[in-house]
Amino acid sequence: MTVVDWLAFGVLVVSFLASSVVLALRVLESWRAFRSLRRTVFKGLGDLERRFSAVETRLTKLGDNAVKLDDARSRLTRSLATASVLAEAAGQARGSLGWLRAVVPRK
Length: 107
Description:
Order of helices and strands: H
Number of helices: 1
Structural class: mainly alpha
Radius of gyration: 45 Å
Number of strands: 0
Strand content: under 5%
Shape: rod-shaped
Helix content: over 70%
Distance between the termini: 146 Å
Oligomer: single chain
């Protein structure tokens, strides 16, 4: 083998080693990026799960509050009916008192 052959072989070996090092560095960088992405995704999923749990709790309370609100509405309806009857009775009493006040002399 001549010197030119050895030089070509040396360039081949050096280029192969250099490309192997570059490839290894890129693979390592990609692995680190993947791990970082995985951590970020799992952290985001945990946060999302916590928020869904909070929303579920609020929805449960909303159902309970809807029942309470319906009960309050029915009580209000009954109270308004009672108030209407009392107002009508007060109006009749006031009308009865009106003729009595007209009859009784004032100072």
